[in-house]
Write a structure and sequence with these properties.
334 residues; alpha/beta; Quinone Oxidoreductase, Chain A, domain 1; Rossmann fold; 2 domains; seven-stranded mixed sheet; six-stranded parallel sheet; 13 helices; 32% helix; binds zinc ion
Length: 334
């Protein structure tokens, strides 16, 4: 079967041994398509993954062979996420399910950018859903990334009337904004790229250029004490300055991206202004369930956010994403 593998800092399509079910529980699925995640880009660019790795985890697939106690059967179109928490360890008991050792260890095999994938029984039981006909493959491929956003929103414990600013309006920023809107809070956005600001505004997310936030700040402060929570989906170190400029006293800054220089948040602002800085990484099965329902019900709109590439053009998809030429790449495979 064909799979896109990392090989000497390139993504190369290779013929690899086809995954088989043998006598295991679980399913072999034919991958119809797989979204290209920001974390795939980071793993590739920062050379975190070794040669031979097949990236990709945002899969839409069709069950071709199954041995399972679940309700799925051959021919079903499904989505699945890749990690499952144990539910019992110290991290799980404290709600930090994505820090769980079992969560990190579980994965789909060999990876989403492949013609076929093995999903374990645990995947089928906890993080897989049958996809109804009314939603497109590209739209439902946002199942896992939206799950990550839902988790971040829940971790912030927002209250009615809260105003949120999303810093960074790439695909994940837009998705986060849509999730915040669907959860009932007022959301604003900012970015440095005009096209993104325009698109966000056209989606009903009031958005500004991060360079002229003074005007925005004055407007917000006329109505209230300021922004209640800032969601950092930008991967730029400088975005931290933006967050500190707009956050109100006692507000929350949700960190949702790594930054190249790993800069910190200032001690004294946190202390004197009683700020809460918190991170959110990856979704729990419950967040994924919420995400699935929001997408299928159409409460979160992800229409026309993807650009589709065939598997053979996956390297191009990586480059176009890195160069901000597109919002979100969807790799069509089957
Ligand atoms: Zn992802
Ligand atoms: Zn655990």
């Amino acid at each position: 079967m064909k799979a896109a593998q990392i090989q000497q800092n390139k993504i190369v399509i290779n013929d690899i041994e086809k995954v088989t079910l043998d006598n295991r529980k679980g399913a072999i699925v034919k991958v119809l398509g797989c979204g290209l995640c920001g974390s795939d880009i980071v793993k590739f660019r920062e050379k975190i993954s070794k040669d031979g790795t097949v990236l990709g985890h945002e899969i839409v697939a069709e069950v071709v062979e199954i041995n399972s106690d679940t309700k799925f059967s051959a021919g079903d179109k499904i989505v699945s996420s890749h990690h499952i928490p144990c539910g019992e360890c110290v991290y799980c008991r404290h709600g930090n399910v994505s820090m769980c050792a079992h969560f990190k260890k579980t994965n789909i095999f060999p990876g989403g950018f492949s013609e076929f994938v093995y999903l374990s029984e645990e995947h089928l039981k906890n993080v897989a859903y049958k996809v109804p006909d009314r939603i497109s493959d590209e739209e439902i491929s946002f199942y896992e990334p939206l799950g990550c956003c839902i988790r971040a929103i829940k971790r912030c414990n927002l209250i009615e009337g809260d105003k949120v600013l999303v810093v960074g309006l790439g695909s994940i920023g837009l998705l986060m904004s849509e999730g915040i809107k669907a959860s009932g809070y007022k959301v604003y956005g900012c970015d440095l790229i005009e096209d993104r600001i325009e698109l966000a505004n056209s989606m009903g997310i009031e958005s500004y250029n991060s360079k002229n936030l003074e005007e925005f700040n004055t407007k917000i402060q006329k109505k209230s004490c300021g922004i209640d929570a800032v969601f950092m989906t930008s991967g730029a170190d400088k975005a931290i300055d933006v967050a500190l400029k707009v956050i109100r006293k006692g507000g929350k800054i949700l960190v949702f991206s790594s930054t190249p220089n790993n800069n910190g948040y200032p001690n004294n602002e946190i202390y004197y202004n009683e700020l809460t800085i918190l991170g959110s990484y990856s979704p729990s099965p419950q967040d994924l369930n919420d995400s699935f329902n929001l997408l299928v019900s159409g409460k979160v709109n992800v229409k026309n956010l993807t650009t589709t590439y065939p598997l053979e053009k996956i390297q191009q998809a990586f480059e176009d994403t890195v160069n901000n030429k597109i919002f979100k790449a969807y790799i069509k495979i089957g």
